[in-house]
Amino acid sequence: MRVTGVAGGGVEGAGALGGLLRAGRVGPDGHPAAVRRVLAWLARAVGGSAWIADGREAGPPPADPDLLRAVAAGRPRAAVVAEPGRYLRVLALGGERPHPVLVVARASPYEETAGPLVAHAATVLELLLRAGEAEAQRQRLAEAGSGVRLSVLQLLMGGEVALAQRTMAGLRPGLLDAERAVVLVLETPEGERREVARACEGLLEGRALVVRCPADDGHVIVVAPVADEGGGAEGALREFVAGRDGVFLGVGDRHPISRVAAGYDDAVRSLAAARLMPGRVAGHQPGVRLPEVLDAGAAAGWAAGFLGPLADVPAQDRGQLTATVRLGLEFTAVNAARLLGISRNTVRARMDRAAGLLGVDLGDVRARAALDLALRFHDGDGAPGDGPELRRLLGAAPVRVWAGGLLAPLRADERDLRRTLRDWVGENCAVEPAARRRGVHPQTVREHLRAAEGLLRRQLVAGGGGLYEVVLALTATGELAETSYEEPCEAGSRWSGRVDRAPVTPSCPATVHP
User: By CB distance 3.0 to 4.6 Å, which of 42, 196, 252, 331 could disulfide with 267?
Assistant: First the structure.
């Protein structure tokens, strides 16, 4: 470490040591800055210069080339040297060998008062260096712990619960032994994520897994195992958000610990709604989501049939495949890869494999919406089922009521946003074809979509769960053209990842920007 004082004219009087203590006070700029201030104080106090020798000395080294090595080895621990044109005091600063070495130089002999000043400064510097190393070690351990927690999250996202539990046992034994968990996602202002993550860790006191999201630099992910009493982590985080401006919270549904990816998907969808809410928090609302109003038995039968080809995939591969598909439907290939701890090419390969097995074109938003819904009822881990077609499920009276309620807020705008939304979805979420069908300028379509997002409290342009719900709602009301959701894809059709949080463009939403 190269830290240098400046030449000065001396510090006199009893206030000198007070100045040393002020210089050595550690502030927000950390221990290295305090070391620099103490060296600058010492340089002024002796009327010369001061630095810590580390091979990149701030001044000419002693004439004796072995002196610094000897002092660093503690043999001797201090030396006073007179050389032509300067006088040196060289001191070992303690710590592990080789010791850091303080060098103080001036052009004339030292006064009697200089010895105690140099000794006091050396004591303060030694304490600062030790404290700085301890802080650096603490940060290294914290980063190591953070890396382990990220690995655990990625294992959970991939459905590898047993390995995640064994990995977590070294940090927090038993934390992931619960059968169910709720996932919560906090969105933080720029530059505040690390602080918010630390606050959450302190607030939850080891009751949950807290991880800085690898896919979004502003997100903190919390996986909270649910005990019988439940709700503790969620309640604490709701209070935290209420008292912290600029932070948003999305709360997922409770899921088996093996389906953390599904819980994360829920939480991200809730977070999209939270951005549009005054309280900055959104969570599960009974009766609001489509799976809750569908006939559960019929829907499970349909989903089992839809996902039936996955039953032939070996169990371990099938778990990885479905976990990847869940995230791939909600996020870009790059972000899904970061969440799973795999490469984006692996994500794309798994999505392509799933599309091939299921015989669907994941470039079609309606196919993605159907697959997303199917995965909410079935994991593809059983025998193929036999259920009604999706259109029959969506035509049930409770579903039509749900769809009407979801789309009803669009009436608050006089611009017929519903028609624009219907045309946009009908054109596979491509703006220019929708504008031609609607007979308006493409910019008008973009403005209508932004207005619809605010009224529906769902992200549409970015794709993902909010868009899929709207697609299925428009299908339930009979407003989309009669096209099979299970139409086989063309040979060679490939999934390339969704556009995530990108502006509305004329391109197909299945185009990825790495």
Answer: 252
Lookup: tokens for 475: 């299908």
- pTM of the shown model: 0.65
Q: Hunting for tokens 């969620």 — which residue is that?
A: 234
Residue matched to tokens 């996602």: 185
Q: Which residues contact 300 (CB under 8 A, 6 or more apart)?
A: 377, 378, 385, 387
Looking at residue 13, its pLDDT comes to: 44
At residue 223, does pLDDT exceed 50? Answer: yes
Average pLDDT along the chain: 81
Helix axes 315-330, 365-375, angle to 10 degrees: 130
Spatial distance between the Cα atoms of 270 and 14, rounded to a whole number of angstroms: 63
Task: Give me the pLDDT at residue 117, please.
Answer: 87
Distance CA 355, CA 324 (A): 12
Q: What residue type is assigned to position 373 of the chain?
A: L
**Other Cβ atoms within 10 Å of 326 Cβ, number:** 23
Closest CA to 178 of 260, 266, 237: 260
- The C-alpha angle with vertex 19 and arms to 123 and 62, in degrees rounded to 5, equals 50
Q: Is the N-terminal amide bond of 109 cis, ω within 30° of 0? A: no
Instruction: Work out the percent of the chain whose per-residue pLDDT is above 90.
Output: 16
Q: Would you give the distance in Å from CA 104 to the centre of its chain?
A: 47
pLDDT in tens, 415-455: 889 999 999 998 999 999 999 998 899 999 999 999 998 88
CA distances, 395 to each of 157, 385, 474, 506 (Å): 33, 20, 11, 31
What's the average model confidence in pLDDT over 22-26? 84
Question: What CA–CA distance (Å, rounded) separates 199 from 360?
Answer: 44
Kindly calculate the radius of gyration of the chain based on its CA atoms and give it in whole angstroms. Answer: 32
pLDDT band at 130 (very low <50, low <70, confident <90, very high): confident
Structure token digits, residue 265 = 């998907």
Question: Could you tell me if 495 and 351 are in contact, meaning their C-beta atoms sit under 8 angstroms apart?
Answer: yes
What the block records as the tokens of 159 is 């459905």
Task: Write the DSSP string, 305-356.
Answer: HHTGGGGGS-HHHHHHHHHHHHHHHHS-HHHHHHHHTS-HHHHHHHHHHHHH
Q: Which of the pair, 355 or 380, is modelled with greater confidence?
A: 355
What string of H, E and C letters represents the secondary structure of 94-121?
CCCCCCCEEEEEECCCCCCCHHHHHHHH
Q: Indicate the range of 153-157, 274-278, 341-345, 482-486 predicted with least confidence.
A: 482-486
Question: What sign does the CA torsion over 186, 291, 452, 445 have?
Answer: positive
